[in-house]
Each structure stands twice: as C-alpha cells, then as structure tokens.
Design goal:
It is a single chain. 64% of the residues lie in helices and 6% in strands. The protein is mainly alpha-helical and 400 residues long. The protein folds into 2 domains: 6-251, Zincin-like (2-Layer Sandwich), CATH 3.30.2010; 261-398, no CATH class. A 4-stranded mixed beta sheet has the order 1-2-4-3.
Length: 400
Amino acid sequence: MIKPFPFHSDLRDYFKKQDKTWSWFSEEKVKIEQQEAYKTDLLKNSYRIDPETESKVYEILNAAKDKLGIIIPITIYQSQSMDGNNAGVVFFENEAHIILSGTILKLLNDNELLVLFGHELSHILLFNLERGDFEITNRIINTIASDPNSELFYYETARLYQLYTELFCDLGALKVSGSLETTIETLVKLNTGLEKVSAESYLKQANEILERIDKGSDGETHPENFIRAKSLEIFQNDNANFHSRIEKIVSGKIDLHQLNLFTKKLVFDITKDLISITLKPKWTQSEYCRALYKQYFANADKKIDGFIDDAFKLKIENSKKNLKEYYSYVLLDFALCDPDLKEAFIGHILDISEQLSLEEEMKTILKKELNLTEKNYKEFAQNCTTTLNTILQSDLENTY
C-alpha cells in the first residue's frame, strides 16, 4: 500500500486544526448541476472513447482499477486539443473521467498505457484515502493560493502539495505496472514524444543532474522528470529511507524567496534562536538592543536559552545562500544598533558567524555595508576581535 507523503499529512493536520475552514470545505460538494455542466462541456470539446469500439483500452483501464481497488465507473475521452501528450482525471463521488490529449494512444504500447492509467487513477486513490481528507486539503490550499491577496508562501505550499501528489501517483503507476523500467520509460515518452527511450540511460542522466545541483524542484505543477524518475528508483531500491531522501531532493535547501507554510515558521524560529544566541551575553543586552529585539518580536518575550549545537548548525547549513545572507544581516543589525558597542559587537558576530559557517557571507556583507577594502577588512576584523576579548576579560561582561 502506497502512503501519502509527510507533506500531505502535515498540511492536512494544519488545516484540520482550523475547525471552521475544515468544516466548510468538508461540507462543500460539487452539485449535480455542476457535474452535468462539466460533462456537457467535455462532450463538446472531446471525443468520447466507448468500451465497445476500444475494448482493449478499457481492458487495460480495468486492470489498473483492479490493482488499485477502484470500483467507480470511468469514461475515457480524447481531447480535441493537440497541446502535447498529456492526461488528466476529473472525478466526482460516483464517477470519473480520464481525458487524453495529443497522440498518447499511438505513442504508448499496452504496458505503458497501463502505467498512464495507474498514474491517473492514483489521484482518485489519494483523494479518497482517510475519508477524503487529502482532497479537502487540496481544495483548501488551492483556494487560498489562488486568491491574489494571499501571501506567496501559500502559493509555494500549494505548488509543493501538487508536486508530492504527482510523485504519489507515480508510485501508484509503479504499483500497477510492476516494472520500474516501463514506468520511467512511459514518463519520458510522454514528456519527449519519442517512440523509443531507455530508462537506464535516463536514470544515469538524472543522477548526473542531481550531482550538479542542490536547489530541489522548481517546476510549477509537476516535479522535473529527473526527480520523478529518481523517486521511483529510490522507492524500489531504498524504501526504508524513501521519504527522507525524496524530501531532500524535492525541497533542496531552504530558499528565502521560496518559503512555504512550514519553512516560513522554521525561518521565524531560527531567527528568534539566532538573536537569542546573539544577546545571551549580558553586555549585549543594552537598551538599544532590547528595543531592536522588540521590533523583531513585538509580542514575544526575549529568549535567553539559545545556544549553538549540532542541530542548530544543521539548520543553518540547510539554507541557500540568500537565506544565509539574511541571517548574517540579522546579526549585523544588532551589531550596529548601539554605537557604544559597535566594535565589540562586530567581533561577537564574527565569532558566531565562524561557529555557524557564515564567515564568507558575513565578510562580504561587512565589506559592502562598511565600505571596507580587503586590506582594511582584515585590520578592522582584528580590532573588533581585540575589543571583544577586552570585554570578555573584564567586568564589563556583567554591565547590563
């Protein structure tokens, strides 16, 4: 039995805590007249493939249904649009419709068509799991993300939810076909239009890509093909570590400009812990620094228990360069807020930066913001460290 990804469950759990929202979307159903309007539109813009004339196609469809335990009636259509080879599924409570576009029925052999149907039917499988929770979650996040007034992290959350949904459906296709090679070759055929491809060659290509990048997926609604192919291989060969490995590949390092609902909260917490670490020495807790802290966290008490351990270092390490620069600017913000502590405080944040492997980002930012040359920077940094050591070796540690 294939399971939803942790991202699916986490987002479902998040929205379930919002009782009114969850209740409203749970009760909102597609009305009969809406279903009929959709089917009328479908008939106008596509060709309905009947079981009597295409019995082989429906035989393959029924084999996929049996593998996944899906019992509702399903009708297949060929879209009049020729915008590439693609397939989609729309389902209501008691029926579903699969829409094919392009030349899929010519391009794919019987085994590959089984893969395609397995993928599309897995959408139905996912959205019927756990009393339809994941379908409800899908509607909630997409409704919020489509609102032009919503913050961008909702859009990114919706995008990732769709990505993990596609990966789940790829696993359903693999379960139906029973062949990793056929599943990957079907994926590549659909996206290239080539009649002959090699799963082995494409997996080598996927591995080469992953060796070159660490940015994760940046596709809009589907993960890049190399991620999908690699996901299938990992599922088959390393099932025990599947979810952790795939999350790392899909998400990559945390990007300041591409935060989602969960990484936004994570960056908030890391920022608070970083400032807590910075203001832990008593001499840093001046009136200016306390006031700046309240600007960052107006409704929060100042934490004083922050410390740098391996877990915190790993959080910083798992950040893209733009996020590391953000953390460095946060440190500099406090270093410059009290002119009486400036040199010692810069020495202090240089020490923190070294412990967190932020030296390069901090050096670049200090040179830029303080107009320092390479030569001047070395002398300035040394002076700041000397001033810091003077404080640490004196009673000024307890000044505030």
